[in-house]
Each structure stands twice: as structure tokens, then as C-alpha cells.
Design goal:
alpha+beta, 14 helices, globular, 4-stranded antiparallel β-sheet
Length: about 400
């Protein structure tokens, strides 16, 4: 199992994760300047060319080209190919793609977190800290060629600048609680609406290699490459909403006889209103029931940790144990001859070996049980399981596993 390309704390440095979540998350944009090689282990031109040279991966679903604020129709850069599934698919045509790139089109690749282990490790780290599924798009653009017009995203956005530079304009306007639903996403409105809603310019950071930009969902922005070529990764984090929760409860509602009962006639206004009130009251009873609450938390948990974590370590065929680190606010401090681990949910007194293992854990966002055992052995700990139980009891680590129980929260 490979390690992380970079941890979330190192991505944000010198800004602390605690400061980020206190001041910026879901509140205001954040620009962080970094050393030019900060993200060199995450991605590169060679990595991009390696992906593009797997031609069967790139279809009208996974690659886009945009120029002057317009997304090009797939027919302009794809060709019909008889695929392995026995049907015709629109596959990216390298010759057409190169021609549009020479003309200044911005290249966008989707599903990058599914094709690159270093990128997947960054997405997994963000899932640990944000508690929501994380995807990654790649953007390759060219000097002074506008790809996309001013818009907002339905996800929280974290941008890592890999190569070249790109000047961003972040506007004061923010669309309230956007989601992937008609009327609540950027494509549901004409550009005139966006131009009138985005407001004045709030900040104009020019991202160079090693820089990070965070944008809360709904924040209006646009960007323009300021060097001959620019390459950046955009990670999008999606949070569960009330709409998602109600969708999950559909099966619970249908189990209740009241929700299977026909509505009164629409001509009987008083009976109709009474039935609606009865449904609302019963819905509240179901939602606040402890079992339903646990089920909803389980849905949110499983949704957040569905992918991006290594699940295979062949030839070992055992089910892996993956731990996430609950590092927000965690502190390891010296207490006399020993050490004390403090987390948001607990604390523990540790011996020297356990403290060294806790320090190793705090340098990660997630890891496998096998990696933990190897780290414990390197530190001279004879019982890795006992040490893991101590750290888990203090609330520092939680096994992601294949499901959720109320006691694992």
C-alpha cells in the first residue's frame, strides 16, 4: 500500500487546519502561497501525458474542451468508436484534441482521482477532513485564453497549482447553497444572470506552482492562464444535504401505513390540510427517532468514505483495515515523565513508545492496519494492537471499515 503524496496539513501550511475550519471553511476564500515543489509528488506533465496516452479512457463523459466561455460539443473533438461493451461510444480523437488545444482550448479531465494513486491519496485526505466524497478534475489551459466564464460550483473547491501560473478573480457574490439539481447549479442560469450576480472583485490571486486556493461552494470566480501553459488540479467536496437525507428516508416512509394512505379529495380542503399536517408530524417523529438518526449518520459516513482508499494489497487477500485520523485540535504534550494525548473527544496518558506512534499517526490522514503494525514495529512496540486500541479509545483514530455503527462516530 502506497503512502500519501502529501497530507492535508502540509497542503495548507503555513495555515493550520484549525484556523482553516474556524475562519474559512464554508465562509470565505483562502489563498495560500507555497514552495514551487510543494505538489511535485502529486502530479506533473509526465503524469498528464501518461493518462492521455491511455486513449480508451477518454470519452465525451470524461474529457471536455472549453474556449471563450463555451464548452465545445463532443462531436468537435470525439469520434464514434465501437467499444468493448458492444456499443458505440464517443471516444476522444487525439488529432482533433491537439488541434483545439493549439487554438487555445482548455482541457478538462474528469475522474483523475480514479486514475492516479497520488491524486487519489489527496482526495482521500480531503474526505477525512471534510467528511464528504471528493473528486478531482484536471485543467490544462494556455496564456490569455479564457476557458470558462464567471461561474460558481456546487462543491467546496480546493485548487492545487501544479505547473505554470493562473490569475484568478474571486467575486464577492455567492450563490446560496447550490446543489446538483435544476435551478440550483451554474448551468441552470444564463450567463447574464451570473454577470449580474457575481458582484465586485474580492481578490485576484495569481497561483504559481505550490499555491493552494480554497473556494466555498457557490463562490463566483473565473481564471485565466498567465504563462504559456498552466496545469492545476481542482478537488471538489460534496456534502450531504437535507434533500439527500429525505431521499434516503423514502424507504422508511413507505413502511409507515400513514404514508401509504391515499390523500383526501382535493375538493375537501379541511381534510386535505389535516392529512398534510398529520404527515408532517409523523415525518418529524420518524426523523428524530434515535434509530433513524443513526441510520442517517451511517448514510453520511458511508457516502463520505466510499472510495479513494486502497482496498487491495495482493497477494494478501485479507480484508484491509483502514483508519482515519481525527486530527482536528489533537495535541500530544509532555506531562512529567510521560505524555498526554488530547483530542476533541478524549484523552490518554501514553508511554514513550505509544507517544512516538501517536506522533506518526498525527503525521498522516489515513493509513492501513498493516502500515500501523509496521510503524509500531519500527518504533520498538511489541503490541501494535494494544497501542491502536489506546489511540482509538482516545478518539485519535477511527476504522473506516465497510460500514457505520453509532459507537464508531
Amino acid at each position: 500500500m502506497s503512502g500519501q503524496a502529501i497530507t492535508f496539513r502540509d497542503m495548507l501550511a503555513p495555515v493550520s487546519a484549525e484556523d482553516f475550519f474556524d475562519r474559512h471553511y464554508d465562509r470565505e476564500p483562502l489563498y495560500v502561497s507555497g514552495n514551487s515543489d510543494k505538489f511535485s509528488a502529486v502530479f506533473s506533465w509526465n503524469a498528464l501525458n501518461g493518462l492521455l496516452n491511455m486513449p480508451n479512457m477518454w470519452t465525451s463523459r470524461t474529457v471536455k474542451l472549453a474556449r471563450d466561455g463555451v464548452t465545445l460539443p463532443a462531436e468537435q473533438f470525439c469520434r464514434p468508436v465501437y467499444g468493448r461493451e458492444g456499443r458505440t461510444v464517443m471516444e476522444a480523437d487525439p488529432a482533433k484534441m491537439r488541434r483545439h488545444l493549439r487554438d487555445g482550448a482548455t482541457l478538462v479531465l474528469d475522474f483523475v482521482e480514479c486514475l492516479s494513486q497520488p491524486v487519489a491519496s489527496v482526495a482521500a485526505a480531503m474526505q477525512v477532513w471534510f467528511g464528504g466524497p471528493t473528486t478531482c478534475n484536471l485543467y490544462c489551459s494556455w496564456r490569455s485564453q479564457q476557458g470558462f466564464a464567471s461561474h460558481f460550483d456546487t462543491t467546496d473547491v480546493v485548487v492545487l497549482q501544479i505547473v505554470g501560473s493562473k490569475k484568478w478573480r474571486i467575486y464577492r457574490g455567492r450563490f446560496e447553497n447550490p446543489v446538483e439539481a435544476p435551478g440550483f447549479e451554474t448551468t441552470g442560469y444564463p450567463q447574464e444572470f451570473h454577470e449580474g450576480t457575481k458582484g465586485d472583485v474580492l481578490m485576484t490571486p495569481e497561483l504559481t506552482p505550490g499555491d493552494l486556493l480554497y473556494l466555498p461552494r457557490g463562490q463566483y470566480h473565473d481564471a485565466l492562464a498567465s504563462t504559456e501553459a498552466s496545469l492545476h488540479l481542482t478537488f471538489g467536496v460534496t456534502q450531504a444535504t437535507g434533500h439527500d437525507v429525505l431521499t434516503q428516508l423514502t424507504s422508511v416512509f413507505v413502511d409507515d401505513p400513514l404514508f401509504r394512505k391515499p390523500f383526501p379529495s382535493f375538493d375537501d380542503e379541511s381534510a386535505h390540510d389535516a392529512h398534510v399536517r398529520a404527515l408532517a408530524d409523523r415525518m418529524r417523529e420518524i426523523i428524530v427517532d434515535p434509530e433513524a438518526s443513526d441510520a442517517l449518520r451511517g448514510f453520511q459516513h458511508d457516502r463520505a468514505f466510499l472510495f479513494c482508499y486502497p482496498q487491495y494489497d495482493l497477494p494478501d487477500r485479507e480484508d484491509p483495515v483502514i483508519y482515519r485520523v481525527q486530527g482536528l485540535g489533537a495535541r500530544l504534550v509532555r506531562r512529567g515523565a510521560g505524555h498526554q494525548l488530547q483530542t476533541q473527544t478524549g484523552k490518554a496518558v501514553l508511554g514513550d513508545g505509544e507517544a512516538k506512534l501517536a506522533a506518526w499517526v498525527l503525521s498522516r490522514d489515513f493509513f492501513s492496519g498493516k502500515e500501523l503494525a509496521e510503524a509500531a514495529q519500527d518504533l520498538g512496540l511489541s503490541d501494535a494492537s494494544a497501542a491502536a486500541n489506546v489511540l482509538q479509545g482516545a478518539g485519535l483514530i477511527v476504522p473506516i471499515g465497510q460500514g457505520f455503527t453509532a459507537s464508531s462516530a
